[in-house]
Design brief:
By secondary structure, the chain is mainly α. It has one domain. A three-stranded antiparallel β-sheet has the order 1-2-3.
């Protein structure tokens, strides 16, 4: 559980630090847009009251608390599951990233009432209108990591026994 804790703690701190630097210190909340490496990387201020891509984000206080409860329940579920199963180092890191990212977004909802988003990436003539944050990257990476690093070990096929053995 120590690996999960430290991976989660690192994800949480990196997300909150990035939001503080970009949104507050660089004043993205005031100027709304900073082109970093256009069109690949831009900072665009966003307030997400829903889940990914603003889905289920009607902005009501009830939906805010439902999303907080859901994120906390998922975190508890992942931690209980991780404790009950034998996981390798990469699976533990993945679980920590997922939990740390989710808790970082929960903290945003508690402090601001929404999740602060600021990353925008476009490429190849496609203008992406959506914004996300570092916690979203950790949540996604953690979920993908859990899929790839918790696969059941393959068993070798048993040779059929010959009669008389």
């Amino acid at each position: 559980m120590r690996i999960i804790f430290w991976a989660g703690f690192a994800a949480f701190i990196l997300d909150q630090l990035s939001k503080y630097v970009v949104v507050h210190a660089m004043e993205l909340s005031r100027i709304r847009s900073i082109d970093v490496l256009p069109p690949l990387l831009n900072f665009r201020y966003g307030e997400n009251t829903g889940i990914n891509f603003g889905l289920f984000g009607d902005g009501s206080d009830a939906s805010r608390w439902i999303l907080i409860a859901l994120a906390c329940a998922i975190c508890v579920g992942v931690l209980v599951w991780a404790q009950r199963n034998v996981l390798g180092t990469w699976a533990k890191i993945s679980a920590g990233l997922l939990v740390g990212g989710a808790i970082a977004n929960v903290v945003d909802r508690l402090i601001y009432g929404y999740v602060l988003d600021f990353l925008n990436m476009s490429c190849c003539g496609i203008n992406n209108p959506f914004v996300f944050n570092v916690a979203d990257v950790f949540i996604f990476a953690g979920a993908i990591g859990l899929i790839f690093f918790t696969a059941e070990p393959k068993t070798t096929a048993k040779k059929p026994r010959k009669k008389g053995q």
